[in-house]
Design a protein that fits this description.
The chain is mainly α. It has eleven helices and two strands. Strand 1 and strand 2 form a beta hairpin. The protein has a two-stranded antiparallel ribbon. The structure holds heme C. The site of heme C has 20 residues, from helix 6 and helix 9.
Length: 229
């Protein structure tokens, strides 16, 4: 309705003057339009202020003097913008004071003991890790005839040869941590605690291949004798 009055007022001003009612309606319409406009203007100003405030915040932080990573610098004598860590700095969670636990060595020699007590859980965990990480080459018993070897990879020595039966736990830890000849290292894939669990399980495997039936508990012995081929 208001639109129509607007058009009429523009085109035929004399028509309006004929009707008092329509004139009142038209004035009312103009007044409401004006209110709307002031509201819009206000919102516009508030938004402009808000955006200006944001931009000025960004400005201060963006204009700080800083270097992009690895960029050259003539401020420091060595020409590098990045400062090397101060000698002896240890990143959070990277303190490796326990030589035996992290390197498998004690006083520079392969450790003859485990850094923590070996429990039944340790052995089960070691078995699971061994089957995942080592059995593809060493096979599940440790004879060195894993699936990858059967497909042509260099055969590792059996874990049951005298030399390896006499090797210290720390030596196996070292082989897993740093690799050996063709064998890659597993330092990235296997955390130290799991490496020790694997070593413990290798000890169990070695025992299993040399054990006599009489080594088993009494109640197990009969069962073993019956199942013997
Ligand atoms: C990709 C195959 C492969 C995997 C997986 C592998 N090994 Fe080996 N390993 C070898 C080969 C090959 C050798 C022999 C390397 C050589 O003589 O050059 C070897 C050698 C060894 C030796 C004997 C070192 C010595 O003094 O003769 C030990 C112990 C050993 N591996 C333990 C492990 C353990 C524990 C794992 C699992 C964490 C593992 N390996 C995983 C291939 C593998």
């Amino acid at each position: 309705m208001n639109g129509i009055y607007l058009i009429i007022s523009k085109l035929f001003p004399f028509v309006l003057s004929l009707s008092k009612d329509s004139e009142r309606l038209f004035q009312d319409y103009r007044a409401r339009q004006a209110t709307k406009q002031t509201l819009r203007t206000r919102i516009f100003y508030v938004l402009t202020l808000f955006v200006a405030a944001l931009v000025s915040c960004r400005q201060e932080m963006a204009d700080q003097p800083n270097y992009r990573p690895l960029v050259e610098s003539d401020f420091f004598a060595d020409g590098r913008s990045a400062r090397p860590a101060i000698a002896g700095t240890v990143a959070r969670g990277q303190l490796r004071e326990d030589e035996q636990f992290y390197t498998g060595r004690l006083g520079g020699e392969a450790a003859a003991t485990f850094p923590f007590p070996v429990t039944r859980e340790t052995l089960y965990h070691g078995q699971q890790r061994f089957d995942i990480f080592c059995s593809p080459c060493h096979d599940r018993v440790g004879n060195g005839q894993g699936m990858i070897v059967r497909r042509g990879f260099r055969a590792p020595p059996s874990l049951h040869i005298d030399r390896l039966r006499d090797s210290r736990p720390g030596y196996f830890f070292d082989v897993i941590s740093r690799g050996f000849g063709t064998m890659p290292d597993y330092a990235e894939q296997i955390p130290p605690e799991d490496r020790w669990a694997i070593v413990a399980y290798i000890r169990a495997l070695q025992l299993s291949q040399q054990a006599a039936v009489t080594d088993a508990p009494e109640n197990e012995q009969r069962r073993l004798r019956e199942s013997e081929p």
